[in-house]
Design brief:
single chain; alpha+beta; Thiol Ester Dehydrase, Chain A; five-stranded antiparallel sheet; 3 helices; 5 strands
Length: 140
């Protein structure tokens, strides 16, 4: 069921979601994206360049956060703008559990032409990993 413009208001909260991140998922993402930077899969290399451990791809993190919006609106094509600032990396330990990206969102502004701006908050291990995470969504 599609979300309609007249059904939302500033402050409308989107369902929060949590996304597990494993080393295996990062290797799969590297294959799909072509980004084989070793900081995303090689712990020894990541430590040598000063990182605390392997980190998730920024675009992987960004895409997971966007899922909160696309799942809410029901149509990925309804997202007409999306941008973030990367504030902290998602550290993914090789402990069989990995990391979790937790995302919340709320309607921050009603715009012209049945569009809304959704602001997202993405955290991992208690730290904000994306800043200025905003999507403009076309509603019916």
């Amino acid at each position: 069921m599609a979300v309609r413009f007249d059904e939302v208001q500033v402050g409308t909260e989107l369902p929060a979601q949590s996304f597990p991140v494993t080393r295996a998922a990062l290797v799969q993402y590297a294959g799909a994206s072509g980004d084989f930077n070793p900081i995303h899969w090689n712990e020894k290399f990541a430590l040598e360049v000063g990182l605390p451990d392997v980190i998730a791809h920024g675009m992987f993190t960004m895409a997971e956060a966007a899922r909160v919006v696309t799942d809410w609106v029901g149509d990925p094509a309804a997202v007409v703008e999306y941008g973030v600032r990367f504030t902290k990396p998602v550290v993914v330990p090789n402990d069989g559990v990995g990391a979790v990206i937790e995302v919340t969102g709320k309607v921050a502004a009603l715009l012209d032409d049945n569009r809304v701006r959704v602001d997202l908050v993405a955290t991992s291990a208690g730290q904000k990993v994306l800043g200025m995470s905003r999507a403009v969504v076309q509603l019916g």
